[in-house]
Amino acid sequence: MMGHDFRWPQSQAEIERIHRERKRLAVERALQSPFWQRRMPPLDLERVHEANVWRRIPVLTKEVLREIPPARFHDEFCIAPRTKAVEYWRSGGATGRPLFYPRSAEDMAHNIIVFERAFALVGATADDCAHVSFPLGVHPVAHLYARAAINLGIGTIWCGAGTNTPSETQLELIDQLKPTVWLGMASYGLHLANLAEVKGYDLARSTVKKLIVAAEPLSPVKREKLERAWGAQVYDHFGMTEAALVAGETIAHDGMRAFTDLWYLEVLDERGEPVAPGDVGSLVVTALWSNTMTPFLRWSSGDLVSLSPASGGKGPWSVFPVMRHARRTVGFFKVRGVNINHAELEDAMFRDPDVVDFRAEVYNAGGNDVLHVYVETRTGGAGSIAAMMRQTFQVAPEVTLLARGTLAREFEANVKAPRFVDKRG
Q1: Spatial contact of 305 and 281, defined as CB atoms under 8 Å apart
Q2: DSSP class of residue 385?
Q3: Do 92 and 215 form a contact (C-beta atoms < 8 A)?
Q4: Domain-by-domain residue ranges, the chain?
């Protein structure tokens, strides 16, 4: 990889020059879209890179895009003919009607570069072999990591998630083909670890020494549980279908470096104003290069993040700011007036080393909300779970102890583990 061009910017001044030039081009391209022609206020294109002019552009949300009928999406939103599309990407949202975005060959050239950078961030070279367990399908993340790895001479095992290749087979391939890097969602990494434990296979003694996880928030508790189970270092990456990979954790484990030469990033408060550097706000993304088909201008990703100035370092990525992912803006149960955040519930469960896995459901019985936790434990007991839940969340749950491997079989058929289920309709 030494001679590979990752197109790293050399300075903050170079990034600022890219912003001045490419923000205007992004607006000019967007104005070719009937959707944006109706939506865009009058702007002075000579000054559009200036903050007070730029923020006149309305923020774009998935809910607004869903108002366009699917049959008219290309004609209304996109700015190049269908014949220019070389592939389509499925939006990765967990709720609502999925959207499908065309990508041109020019878009893909830029998008592949950012995934090649992902491997450089973690020190992966042609001496490595990558086992890809992200779902294989219209959602692009698995393909992009694998194709970028191939470009860098890294061996690839295109497994996909358990819906593509059974998890038991994946464990056999890890044992037989000796990959050094595993890529997938953290929840699926835990699922493989739990299955390996049931099968008597010690993942911590495998050849895998690096885990690249993305597509869901990674808490310190989940990171520690993954690293302990796999005997490997975890690297957190962050992206979205409306862009590509936006930020990635480096070999220094000093936060995710955000690729601000490829994306113009804003972190806004509830009024739409920028937050102070390092403060948490809502992430808004503009594609500066991969925008020849879909003009994603000031796209609200639905993520809460902080963005801090570049903290230096030895790598060529040291010029980039540091992003920290707080959480998605959705994901909680309201039970008897108490808000129970899914991520906090997951952390509370996984903090107990006896807990192997769990699923939480809420249902209504006789007019009352009931929180029911199904749990697998190493000791075969679950006596402390209810007490912990009462103390942490002020809600007394029902607790059902499951036999080892039960949840693994349930989760096997799903792209994302259905760990939180609201049955109240």
Answers
A1: yes
A2: H
A3: yes
A4: 12-110+242-328, 122-238, 332-422
Superfamily of chain region 332-422: ANL, C-terminal domain (3.30.300.30)
Please give the model's pTM, rounded to 2 decimal places.
Answer: 0.87
Per-residue pLDDT of 55-80, as tens digits, reads: 999 999 989 999 999 999 999 999 99
Q: How many beta carbons lie within 10 A of that of residue 90, not counting itself?
A: 14
Percent of the chain topping pLDDT 70:
95
**Is 388 buried (19+), middle (13-18) or exposed (0-12) by CB count in 10 A?**
middle
- Same CATH fold, 332-422 and 122-238? no
- Is the pLDDT at 346 greater than 90? The verdict is no
Q: Kindly tell me if the per-residue pLDDT of 222 is higher than 50.
A: yes
Cβ neighbours of residue 293 closer than 8 Å, sequence gap 6 or more = 78, 79, 80, 84, 85, 101, 102, 103, 104, 107
| Per-residue pLDDT, 329 | 47
Provide the residue type at 237 as one letter.
H
CB-based burial label for 63 (10 Å; 0-12, 13-18, 19+):
exposed
CA torsion, ordered 241, 242, 247, 249, to nearest 10 deg = -10
Fold of 122-238: Rossmann fold (3.40.50)
Name which of 3-12, 130-139, 204-213, 323-332 the model is least confident about: 323-332
- Indicate the Cα dihedral angle 387, 391, 394, 396, nearest 10°: 0
Per CATH, which fold does 12-110+242-328 belong to? Answer: Rossmann fold (3.40.50)
Give dist(CA 110, CA 72) in Å, integer: 27
- Unique residue bearing structure tokens 């839940």: 389
Tens of pLDDT, residue by residue over 231-266, are 999 999 999 999 999 999 999 998 899 999 999 999
Q: How far apart are CA 360 and CA 351, in angstroms?
A: 16
